[in-house]
Design goal:
Pfam families: VHS. This is VHS domain-containing protein. Residues 15-105 form the VHS domain. InterPro entries: ENTH_VHS, GGA1-3, VHS_dom. The protein has a single domain (2-102), classed as Serine Threonine Protein Phosphatase 5, Tetratricopeptide repeat, CATH 1.25.40.90. The protein is built from 7 helices and no strands. The chain has helices spanning 2-15, 25-37, 41-53, 58-74, 76-83, 86-96, 98-102. It is globular and about 35 Å long. 27% of the residues are buried.
Length: 105
Amino acid sequence: MADDGESLESWLNKATNPSNRQEDWEYIMGFCDQINKELEGPQISVRLLVHKIQSPQEWEAMQALTVLEACMKNCGRRFHNEVGKFKFLNELIKVVSPKVSSKTT
């Protein structure tokens, strides 16, 4: 199964490479296609996307958001179910409100 995760990760790394001059739709759509092919594609891809979206490199994070949007349009119900889970949503909240992740009461 590690093979599958690596191929998804490889597509995403190419789609969000900080040295890209613009969005690379070949890799973005390749990532979407790979998600749809793999049984665990939606679960694995959402974990990978969260990591990229939280990148301290702004361009990498922005490309990851573009990839997320493409996945929402092209990956169907299984992907939507993963994105709708609290775990994913909480990770996105950390991006827009860093204070949430640093407060421990």
